[in-house]
Amino acid sequence: MPDPRFFTSSGPLALKLLADRAGAQLRDARHAETRVHTVAPLQAPEPGALTFCDHRRYLDALPAWPAASAILVTAEVAAVAQTDAALLIAPAPTVAFARMARQFFPEPLPPPSIAPSAAVAPSAEIDPSAVIAAQVSIGHGVKIGARTIIRAGTVIGDGVQVGADCDIGVLVSLHYCQVGDRVKMLAGARIGEPGFGFVTTPTGVVKVPQLGLVEIGDDVEIGANACIDRATLTRTVIGQGTMIDNLVHIAHNVQIGKGCIITAQVGISGSTVLEDYVVLGGQVGIADHIRVGRGTRIASRTGLFRDAPAGSSLGGFPAVPIREWHRQSAFLLKGRAEKKEQANE
């Protein structure tokens, strides 16, 4: 159960109401008015709680759940489940659980306000429904949309625009950027810092001025301490609905499409293009001026040095088709085992 010191439940809620909101169906209509008040892991049965079971291998845990509780399952699991708890059937129990958990624990919205310690330029336009927390600095010409929250210690540079219903975390810095609606940024994100642009000469390094900006689409999430550099002359773009994990670096001029998933410690070099719905595993490194096709999936710790066709699955260093990478790994493991056997003879 979520710790009540940090998370306040809005329950109890009736199962029929929850099922309707999450696209699930009750196996037994007699449980329609059964009320649950919290969520819990499958391995920790709790009266009045909701959990989920998305695979048959977890069936042994179901009998321990009491009748006053509820379990989200697939139709396949429901056909063989043995439990007194109410069963809610959904094609994707994890998705339905996420929707229901949000019903119990919606993110709290502080009342509209501007903290006395905030430094706000006179020319800034802040919607009356926005929240500006303590020690925030907002520059000239900034625009903050309706119901947006700017959390403590954040710095928003001159001319930046932030849309409606955004949540900008603590100690974030925003410069030279435009941010869409419903964007969430976690603590310490750095948006719009200058790109790493320079040319070498016989007498030393000459920095190239970074005169572009960053454009972030609607419904984007940016993790803690992620860095997105502004473009040299045009725009670094993060497409609608893209999810970026903690400690990701996105260099200048990068173009990222819609619905991409970029996990922790990924590094994307300058002027690379990710088309829509690309998935990058942890610690992937991508060289500059690479194009990654729509729907491509790249395994963790892969190094990509050439274009990837749409729909491909890649892994290894350097990147190769995923099956080839698996064969390479098996061959190397076999070779090591043979050497070990020879050494022991």
- Low-pLDDT stretches are none
CATH topology of the domain at 175-323: UDP N-Acetylglucosamine Acyltransferase, domain 1
Which percent band covers the strand fraction? Answer: 25-35%
User: Tell me about the biggest sheet?
Assistant: 12 strands, mixed
Shape: flat
Q: How large is the count of helical segments? A: 4
* Helicity range: 10-25%
Question: If classified by CATH, what would the architecture of the domain at 175-323 be?
Answer: 3 Solenoid
Biggest sheet strand order reads 8-11-14-17-20-25-28-31-34-37-39-40
Q: State the separation between the terminal residues, measured CA to CA.
A: 56 Å
Taking Cα atoms only, what radius of gyration do you get, to the nearest Å? 25 Å
- CATH class term of the domain at 175-323: Mainly Beta
Give me the count of strands.
40
Which homologous superfamily in CATH is the superfamily of the domain at 175-323? Hexapeptide repeat proteins
What structural class do you assign from the helix and strand content? alpha/beta
Mean pLDDT over the residues: 93
Domain UDP-3-O-[3-hydroxymyristoyl] glucosamine N-acyltransferase non-repeat region: 34-102
Enzyme class: transferase
Pathway: Bacterial outer membrane biogenesis; LPS lipid A biosynthesis
Family: Belongs to the transferase hexapeptide repeat family. LpxD subfamily.
